[in-house]
C-alpha cells in the first residue's frame, strides 16, 4: 500500500545535507575503514607467522593459515580501493565547497563594488580631480614665491652699492696714510757742505743730458 501511494504522489526526497556534514561523514567513514585496514594487516601477519611455524611439520595447518591469509589479503585489497574512493570523494567535495565559498565571497564583493560605484558620479570625480590639480598648482606657486631669495631687496641699485664700497675702501686708505710718521727738519741728519756741493754738480750734469 505504501509503495502504491509513493508511486502516485511521488517519493519525497530527504533534505540534502550540507557540504560540511557530508565531508564530516566521509571523514568518519574513512577513519573507520583505516582502523579495519590495520586490523586486517595484523591478521595477515598472524596467519603468515602460523604458516611459517607449522612449515613442513604440519602442512594441513600451514595451508589453512595461508588460505586465511589470502582471504584477509583479498579483503584488504577491497578495503584499500574503498578508502581511495572515499578519500577522492571527500577531496572533491572539499574542493567544491571551497569553490562555492570563494564564489559566494566574490559575489558579495561584486555587489559591494556595484553599490559603491552607484554612489559615485564620473563627472563629479573628474571635476574633483581637476580641482585638486588646480589647488596643487596654486600651492606650488605659493611655495615657489615664498622660497625665492631674489624677491627681497630687488629694488636696490647695484651701482650705488659699488660706489659706497669704493668710498669705504678710500676711507680705509686715507686712514692708513694718516698713520705715516712725520719728521722734523732739525731731526734729519745733515749732509756735509762738500758732499752737498758735489751732489748739486752731479745733478746739473745729469740735467744737461
TrEMBL record:
Keywords: Coiled coil, Endosome. InterPro entries: Snf7_fam. The keyword Coiled coil applies. It is found in: Endosome. It holds the Pfam family Snf7. PANTHER family: CHARGED MULTIVESICULAR BODY PROTEIN (PTHR22761), GH13992P (PTHR22761:SF10). Belongs to the SNF7 family. This is Charged multivesicular body protein 4b. It comes from Steinernema glaseri.
Amino acid at each position: 500500500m505504501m509503495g502504491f501511494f509513493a508511486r502516485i504522489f511521488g517519493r519525497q526526497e530527504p533534505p540534502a545535507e550540507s557540504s560540511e556534514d557530508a565531508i564530516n561523514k566521509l571523514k568518519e567513514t574513512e577513519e573507520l575503514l583505516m582502523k579495519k585496514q590495520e586490523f586486517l594487516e595484523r591478521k595477515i601477519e598472524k596467519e603468515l607467522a602460523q604458516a611459517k611455524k607449522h612449515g613442513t611439520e604440519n602442512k594441513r595447518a600451514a595451508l589453512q593459515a595461508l588460505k586465511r591469509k589470502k582471504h584477509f589479503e583479498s579483503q584488504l585489497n577491497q578495503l584499500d580501493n574503498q578508502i581511495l574512493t572515499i578519500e577522492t570523494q571527500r577531496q572533491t567535495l572539499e574542493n567544491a565547497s571551497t569553490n562555492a565559498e570563494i564564489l559566494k565571497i566574490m559575489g558579495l564583493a561584486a555587489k559591494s563594488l556595484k553599490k559603491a560605484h552607484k554612489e559615485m558620479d564620473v563627472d563629479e570625480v573628474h571635476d574633483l580631480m581637476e580641482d585638486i590639480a588646480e589647488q596643487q598648482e596654486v600651492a606650488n606657486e605659493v611655495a615657489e614665491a615664498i622660497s625665492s631669495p631674489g624677491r627681497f631687496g630687488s629694488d636696490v641699485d647695484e651701482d650705488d652699492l659699488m660706489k659706497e664700497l669704493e668710498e669705504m675702501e678710500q676711507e680705509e686708505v686715507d686712514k692708513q696714510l694718516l698713520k705715516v710718521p712725520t719728521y722734523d727738519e732739525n731731526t734729519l741728519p745733515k749732509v756735509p757742505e762738500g758732499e752737498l756741493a758735489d751732489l748739486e754738480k752731479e745733478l746739473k750734469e745729469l740735467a744737461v743730458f
